[in-house]
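fyi for ur records
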Amino acid sequence: MASMKNNWKTTPPFHPEIDYSRCDYKNGCNLCAHECSWGEISLKPEKLDNGTVVYKPVANLTSCGSCQRCVKMCPYNAIHIVNSPMYTSHGYWTPDYVGNIWKQASSEGGVLLVGNGATGPQRRYFDHLMFDACQVTNPSIDPLREPMEIRTYLGRRPEKWGQETYPLLKLEVPIMFGAMSFGALNLRVHEAEAKATKEIGTYWNTGEGGFHKSLRDKYGANTIVQVASGRFGVSEDYLKSAAAVEIKIGQGAKPGIGGHLPGEKVSREISETRMIPEGSDALSPAPHHDIYSIEDLRQLIYAIKEATEYKVPVSVKIAAVHNVAAIASGIARAGADIIAIDGFRGGTGATPLQIRQNTGIPIELAIAAADERLRQEGIRNQVSLVASGGIQCSSDVLKAICLGADAVYVATPVLIALGCGMCQRCFTGKCAYGITTNRPGLAERIDVDEAAWALKNLLHAWAEEIEELMGSMGINAIEAMRGNRDRLRGVGLNEEELNILGVKHAGA
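which gave:
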């Protein structure tokens, strides 16, 4: 009887196709095989007519991650990635659903893990929001000839002039690098983030994996450290080493569940930084086992403030969920200085597929609802709002600010700027670009100086575009954009959506 074993492993949804008429393997170019971290391209001996033995790159059709590394690195443009013909077209049963069932029905079974952000069909509200530019009677501003102010501050503001002041974060651009932990990323990427933010004048977030000691003295002033449910790396020195402390309650890619860094990724260096045994799984519980109410959260906030001698702001990060406005109100009253809200399109190294695709709400609706609730209760100035999850470009940054954010976190754009091919297999440790891996041969593909240079370029470009957008609206200060929903107009949105966003329909 023929075997019933599923063949999904031997025929992935995509594979490299090599044009041998362009390939220079006969002269010894085997760069594609060398660069492939998945083992998808192997070298097959071939004897030429003159008797010389050369090695021909061939696709194994077993493990392609579609990272596009081979495509980008081929000097002869001889490779492209194609879809497998086994995935037939169907209007309802798309290749994604069919392939997922094959995987779970095979010997692999279990919960399907993915990386990066949600890929579902849910509406991206940023694409339905347009800026209301100036014409004729309300002149615009030329940012090339007139001063523009995009500096902002995060933290609690005094209610009246002359009252007690609070520690603030000064951002020269309203953009920070979001939380991505040491372990999920390697030390080279963390250093690149730190170096870029120091030179630009903004901040990066360590994530829940601790703050490597080699970076603390040089980059601590531009670093936000996290206190998450696993308490990895948390100590008094850790809390005092940074410019701000963030309590991570949840994240947009996986609201309501914890994290898992496989033991094979916990090297000696990661073990020391996270303060866990080398080679052991780093498991973050779903909840904080000391937080079951706003009162419990208040205790932790003030414990951190006591430990840091009230010198740094304390942030609380939550996932965007349906009652986010009420939660934000409670967090503000609990004494937080900053609230970070992460929408459902937020990326991550690994999360269950069904969690990523089906939990949480869009950041656009969440940040607008939270801002409005805090304004209604008269406590908006007691806390800053940071939006994240699905920020793709500079206009998204400014739209988020118009909806009520003070600044944004970006994370996936950081990975893309460093070369990420969006293969969604960050959890495998085989990242072909050396970003989400600690394997020496792969991690070394990240050059710290070049990576920092790329990240600085990205922030510079987005800052210039933000100034151009503000100028088109006749506004020269980012603070005047915060919560200024009158500068937005909706297109193709229903009345309820417009009401939550606090935005008028285009033409109204």
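The chain has a mean pLDDT of 91. thats all i got for now
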